[in-house]
Write a structure and sequence with these properties.
Layout: H1 2-20, H2 24-48, H3 54-61, H4 77-97, H5 101-121, H6 130-133, H7 135-149, H8 156-168, H9 179-192, H10 197-202, H11 205-212, H12 214-224, H13 231-263
Length: 282
């Protein structure tokens, strides 16, 4: 469920940021400093230890890993590749569609679901490809529109029910079109009800600590969890090493990216007027 939850959160978070500041130069500068340095460090490490090859590293760096095979130690780059492909296109769609961006999102979701159904019934099951999975991100994007204008209000009980239902139907192929919607509604409800018991639990220090370091944990777990050392040490390393990188490597570079992005001036294209879907949820 981790990847599907991440897609829903990512769509909500990134689209909300774009609605606040639609300058694509600032967006991509921040994104590059956030994503590329940790990925380069991990890929360089597995390459030095001959756990992958140059061709595979290039596929990962070009965010094409979800369209080609490769060694185990870079297999998890499929989800990062899918996300970055999506964010090369989605901000441009926001510019072109403007007030109709939410309608475009709905149409693309419908197209993805239709194509996936056709492809899977004809034996073309590519679970990691963008055209068969990006609806998970798009539902999160739609929830950002709803959050911006307040047209959808998800109560805490409904939010919890949606998250539980999303988990229950996750492994049932026939429910794949519904599952991302349920997860996005559940996450939207946690944002809209910060005082609920569940939302406060998510704001607990241990979960916030993990969340801040989640990108590093995501990158390194594929290597650290399969080292030839006792399991306890592997579990410690998978949190300890990314934590050290977060403090002394990721955070300084993110500050550099934010500083450079802050120097970009003029011609900010705002998406804030994009009209939300007029939906009422219980």
């Amino acid at each position: 469920m981790g990847v599907d939850l991440f897609f829903a959160i990512s769509g909500l978070l990134i689209t909300s940021q774009l609605l606040e500041d639609g300058d694509l130069r600032r967006f991509y500068i921040r994104r590059a400093f956030r994503i590329l340095p940790p990925a380069l460090l991990y890929l360089g490490t597995v390459l030095v230890f001959h756990l992958t090859n140059v061709t595979d590293v290039l596929h990962c760096l070009l965010f094409l890993r979800n369209y080609g095979g490769g060694p185990w130690y870079t297999g998890h780059f499929w989800s990062l590749s899918l996300e970055e492909q999506f964010y090369l296109i989605w901000p441009l769609l926001l510019i072109c569609a403007h007030k109709r961006a939410n309608l475009v999102a709905v149409l693309v979701i419908a197209a993805v679901c239709a194509w996936r159904t056709y492809a899977w019934t004809h034996g073309e099951v590519f679970y990691v490809r963008t055209e068969q999975r990006c609806d998970g991100l798009l539902w999160g994007c739609l929830s950002a529109f709803c959050l911006k204008k307040g047209t959808v209000r998800v109560g805490p009980l409904l939010s919890g029910a949606c998250l539980v239902a999303g988990v229950m139907v996750w492994s049932i192929p026939g429910f794949l079109p519904v599952m991302p919607m349920l997860l996005s509604l559940g996450i939207l409800g946690t944002v809209q009800n910060p005082q609920s018991i569940f939302s406060r639990a998510l704001e607990s220090k241990p979960l916030v600590w993990i969340g801040q370091r989640s990108y590093g944990i995501y990158l390194w777990q594929e290597l650290l969890l399969f080292l030839a050392i006792p399991l306890t040490f592997r579990l410690v390393l998978v949190f300890l090493w990314p934590s050290a990188l977060y403090r002394w490597f990721e955070t300084p570079l993110r500050k550099v990216g934010r500083s450079l992005a802050g120097q970009v001036a003029g011609n900010v294209r705002s998406f804030a007027v994009a009209a939300p879907l007029q939906i009422k949820v219980g």
